[in-house]
């Protein structure tokens, strides 16, 4: 086949693509951007489009989703561009049932309370934008009313390197404590008010013993580290009783079936690490390549609970899969560099 025949085929291919895009109500002056997204996808793969699968597209979306410079509308354009490519032009068998709309939903921005961004500095502008909404929740109103108090509380928590989960929990319990006492300033309250609130949790809310202890820890932290007041004697309050129940533990076969049921290969690897290494979710998310020791088959988990490091054994059956993931991300990074989009390297590299 000579160059002229190739050029004719390419021209027909993109002509068909543009024609099919009309059914998606894409403005004529915007079609070129969808074509550009499709071209970038094709150039990033060396295999024929007919050989691509839903997993291939998933991996591409995951890689592009890490690019902080990619706007939400650009991500949705990219999804629609590949939808046209595989559903209408290539007519891949799997494409008609692929969750294209679900992929577009992933373009929405993360909430300010999301664990990935919740520890960003809380500027005055962010606080004002939260309080400008017409329908304020009771919690937001209270945090605005006692703004200085909660800023001091969060600073004390972060100074001790507590986890974001602990931070959100303590702040939440302090909010509830203040609301229970009709928005009374905590600095004017003390042991009797704490005791009455803990009794309320046990008697009226019927919380578990662990929940009551968590509330106590959050309130005591407030008085000890923010107000610099030691809680001497809370007095008598009703203790929540922990029911005697046997834990439900999955068998090895059930765990294997559960992990096999995860479609996404990366999430499946993460689930295997959680089970095989005894890691917590955020410990796995923050895992870095430098913390994996293949020579000793172990993982160094940094800044774990209590801001401590610990070593966990690395299951031999996961070694090859982790190495493949590392190699895959390196290739993605090289592609991003070639497109001038590889300045931000994900934690897996």
Relevant terms:
349 residues, mainly alpha, hpI Integrase, Chain A, 3 domains, 3 strands, 56% helix, disordered C terminus
Give the helices and strands, then pairings.
Blueprint: H1 3-21, H2 31-43, H3 54-65, H4 72-89, H5 100-105, H6 124-131, H7 138-145, H8 147-159, H9 164-180, H10 191-203, H11 209-226, H12 252-260, H13 265-277, H14 281-285, E1 292-293, E2 298-301, E3 310-313, H15 316-338
Antiparallel strand pairs: 1-2, 2-3
Helix pairs in contact: 1-4, 2-4, 9-11, 10-11, 13-15
Assembly type of the chains comes to single chain
Question: Major β-sheet, in short?
Answer: 3 strands, antiparallel
Task: Report the helical percentage.
Answer: 55-70%
Report mean pLDDT, rounded to a whole number: 82
Counting DSSP H or I runs of 4 or more residues, the number of helices is: 15
- CA radius of gyration is 27 Å
Q: Number of DSSP strands?
A: 3
Query: Taking strands numbered 1, 2, ... along the chain, how are they ordered across the largest sheet?
Result: 1-2-3
**How many domain modules?**
3
State the end-to-end CA separation: 41 Å
- Unreliable spans are 119-135, 345-349
Task: Please state the overall shape, judged from the principal axes of the Cα atoms.
Answer: elongated
Which percent band covers the strand fraction?
A: under 5%
Order of helices and strands: HHHHHHHHHHHHHHEEEH
Could you explain the architecture of this structure?
By secondary structure, this protein is mainly alpha-helical. It has three domains: 3-105; 138-226, Tyrosine recombinase, N-terminal domain (DNA polymerase, domain 1); 252-338, Orthogonal Bundle (hpI Integrase, Chain A). The protein is 56% helix and 3% strand. The protein is built from 15 helices and three strands. It has a three-stranded antiparallel β-sheet with strand order 1-2-3, with no helix packed on it. Strand 2 (298-301) and strand 3 form a beta hairpin. Helix 1 packs across helix 4, helix 2 crosses helix 4 (72-89) and helix 9 (164-180) crosses helix 11. The longest helix has 23 residues, at 316-338. The protein is elongated and about 90 Å long. The model is unreliable at 119-135 and 345-349 (pLDDT under 50).
